[in-house]
Each structure stands twice: as C-alpha cells, then as structure tokens.
Amino acid sequence: MNATADDWESIDQIHEHVARAGLLATRDEVADEMLRLLRSGRFEVMPQSPIPVDAVAVLGAPTKYWMAMSQTGRAQWQRECARMD
C-alpha cells in the first residue's frame, strides 16, 4: 500500500516498490494482492480504466490499470503507520 500513498500506480510501479523494500514477490503475486485490495475496498481503479478488472486483465495490460488507495485503504494505512512509529 505504501507504493500508492501519494499517487496512482501501475502494477509495474508497485512491483518495483515491493522489490525495493526487499520483499520477494512475483508480478503475479503483486497483481493478486492488488486485486485483493481492490475487492476489499482498500484500492480503487483510476476512473477511466475499464471495469470489471481481473488478474488476467491487469497482467495482460499492466500499464493500462492504475490503482490508488481508497479512503478505506488510506485510513487503514495511516493506522498501521502510526502503530509502527
């Protein structure tokens, strides 16, 4: 979620952020997590992106789908950040 703290991000940007954090995750795993966050209401898809979004679509056109934290996601992210400080 940190990758989307300040802007809309694509799967490629989020995957790169995950790798820089030292986490080992495949692109498929990152896409699956992005979709889990989307389904749970913590992520949202940039409005001009086609709906519905699924893992095959995200993996097939990674720069087409841009995601960001939803208000629900941002609230959770802020709680987690405060807890870790």
In brief:
With 85 residues, the chain is mostly helical. It has helices at residues 11-20, 27-39, 55-60, 71-84, and strands spanning 9-10, 43-45, 66-69. Helix 1 (11-20) crosses helix 2 (27-39).
Tell me the layout of helices and strands.
Elements (H helix, E strand, L loop, with lengths): L8 E2 H10 L6 H13 L3 E3 L9 H6 L5 E4 L1 H14 L1
Antiparallel strand pairs: 1-3, 2-3
Helix pairs in contact: 1-2
Gross geometry: globular
Tell me the count of domains: 1
User: Strand sequence of the main sheet, in spatial order?
Assistant: 1-3-2
CATH architecture: Orthogonal Bundle
Overview of the molecule:
With 85 residues, this protein is mainly alpha-helical. The protein has one domain (2-84): Arc Repressor Mutant, subunit A, CATH 1.10.10. It contains four helices and three strands; from the N terminus they run βααβαβα. The protein has helices at 11-20, 27-39, 55-60, 71-84, and strands at residues 9-10, 43-45, 66-69. It has a three-stranded antiparallel beta sheet. Helix 1 (11-20) crosses helix 2. The chain is globular. The model has no long low-confidence stretch (mean pLDDT 86).
